[in-house]
Amino acid sequence: VVAIPGKATHQQTRAHNAALVLRALYDHGPISRAEVARMSGLTRTTVGDLVAELIEQGMASEVGRGPSTGGKAPILLELIDGARHVVGLDLAELRFRGALVNLRGNVVQTAEREVGTADGDEAVDLVHELIDELVKGRDDTLLGIGVGAPGIVDAATGTIRWAVNLNWPDLPLGDMLRERYGLPVKVANDSRAAALALQLFGERQTGTANLVAVTVGRGIGAGVVLGGELFHGDGFGAGEIGHTTVVEEGPECRCGRIGCLETVASSRALLRLASDEGEANPDSFLGARLADDGHLRLTDLVAGLTADDAATHRIVARAGRYLGEVIGGLIGVLDVERIVLHGSVAILGEPWLQAVRDEARRRSFPPLSANVHIDIAAPIGDLVVMGASALLLTSELGLASGRAAAGRSVAGRIAAGRAA
Ligand SMILES: [Zn+2]
Fold it and tell me: 92 alpha carbon to ligand 1 midpoint, in Å?
């Protein structure tokens, strides 16, 4: 294929300009055409054309008149939040969850499927079912599909290279969904999608451009955001800390190796250790809880912490220390000041967090660790689903991207230019 440079450049320029206009409406609407022109640096004619197109596409509307500055009061424009939708999916281990979200990332509809023992093609069928349910009757407003999946995901093509439980070796999920739905599709590792969501929606006030978000649930993984962008690594495995060996001669891991972080710090590991403790000591707090129900949940551990049960505290602190050990290593490599923990294990709260913090500090270089803040994420919704949707909004419309890093965002640069 021979590209015609002039034509390509023209199209690129137009797309770029359209994104600037969209962004101005998104961040500052309702605003007048003149204000859009001032903010974007585009001519009034160009803005007028692009706005007309957005109105025709049903993406923007005129919403009355603003205050007059002497002449005729200007007509104000606004982006229509519900004009387009994206599907965000979280293909978590036990349950696939999905949501239809609007341009602001607000959830319009949700759906989910139990995974049970489904794997391979059966699990793919569940993904299709979930999307079918979410997109029913919305075909004309769909922008695309974003997916967060466990394991190693080639984010460039959307191919799942390796997923522990789903038996999807080299599954070209991105291509399969693009073909089936005829829409743009983005697939990323779930921990990375969650990190993006936290950076875009959770850390906005702090203006954080660098962030490590660590998922601690049945699996453990991290997402690394540097300079407002997800860092994927050379093999799309940046942040795969769950299978770092932390115990010599330790328990066997799902990955086939021994003593991985997941075997001592994941929810499974915690529940296994707590059950062992309860079985060994039937009269203890955990023993009584175990006898009640036949198995333990993380909420039983929360109850144990609240009741100041020594064994529960010991188990939780040990898991926290192993996690802290690995996080200490990250601090040395990345010198990132914001580390956020999330996932089901974060329900253990302060005693767990304190163990993570203490160990991370103990194992990292003091001049670096002195400035590090390790916290549990504020509950802002289903992070993987939100992150998956954000991937799509960012790639298709340039929305959501870099909102936290105002200095780097388009709007931020425009504002900076105006001030200068
Ligand atoms: Zn492992």
Answer: 18
